[in-house]
Write a structure and sequence with these properties.
Number of helices: 8
Strand order of the largest sheet: 5-2-1-6-7-11-10
Strand content: 15-25%
Shape: globular
Radius of gyration: 20 Å
Distance between the termini: 55 Å
Largest sheet: 7 strands, mixed
Helix content: 25-40%
Length: 246
């Protein structure tokens, strides 16, 4: 009986201590991160996703991972660089990166977040939109487009990297947003045809559109290594987090 009473007392002390610690923590920004599968050829570029996670965690952000609950546009065997077998779901594959902590983007509203980030990889222009195949005439997933529009309308910052930024051009091009996918590319003309302004940018830097509260970095569109893209992604995350405070 004494042992039970002692255990309950210890448990109560732990609860009080944890509650006090939480009460002392500053309010952490809640950042939504949109993924598009797992694997750069048919989903999210994993290195970009992991670096984004790292710098958001270091920035003391609460992260909400999300993806469309929809079939992938295709499946690629990454070892052989050729079409793979079977069908895959974007949400289920994205959960591999987020260790299972993920929600259907259809359930997320801008009012739930302080900022939004879109990670690159070919899945961002295959599964979040069909920009890779249709260019300026593409269609963005309805929930992805809705959340981008809501976030923009609420004047909350948006970060993006790699070719995922083409989706911003499609959704917000009429607002004359300024973005980057890096250097010269066949995709730049398509991005500008959608109304966006494209800026050249080195892999370790960012393009900041202060007026529209958008931060983009080239990442693997320029590459070539994880250490190279880490510099730009860190700057993008730091800039985004600073924007949530103003």
């Amino acid at each position: 009986m004494k042992r039970i009473v002692f255990s309950l007392a210890v448990l109560a002390l732990c609860v009080v201590t944890a509650t006090a610690a939480l009460a002392q923590d500053p309010v952490r920004p809640k950042i939504g991160v949109i993924l598009s599968g797992c694997g750069m050829m048919d989903g999210t570029e994993v290195s970009e996703a992991v670096l984004t996670m790292l710098y958001l965690e270091r920035g003391k952000a609460n992260v909400v991972y999300m993806a469309p609950n929809a079939p992938q546009a295709d499946v690629i065997n990454h070892a052989a660089n050729k079409p793979g077998d079977g069908a895959r779901n974007v949400l289920e594959e994205s959960a591999r990166i987020s260790r299972g902590s993920i929600v259907d983007i259809a359930s997320v509203k801008a009012e739930d977040l302080d900022a939004l980030v879109i990670v690159g990889g070919l899945g961002s222009v295959k599964n979040l939109s069909d920009f890779l195949s249709k260019g300026k005439d593409c269609t963005v997933n309805s929930d992805v487009a809705r959340l981008i529009k809501e976030t923009y309308a609420a004047k909350k910052p948006i970060g993006s990297m790699c070719l995922a930024s083409a989706n911003l051009a499609k959704v917000l091009g009429k607002q004359k947003i300024t973005i980057t996918i890096g250097g010269a590319s066949n995709f730049v003309g398509q991005i500008e045809a959608m109304g966006a302004i494209h800026r050249q940018c080195a892999v370790g830097d960012v393009v900041v559109d202060e007026k529209n509260r958008i931060v983009t970095t080239p990442a693997m569109m320029v590459g070539p290594s994880t250490s190279d893209i880490a510099v730009g992604i860190e700057k993008m995350v730091q800039t985004l987090l600073s924007m949530t405070k103003r």
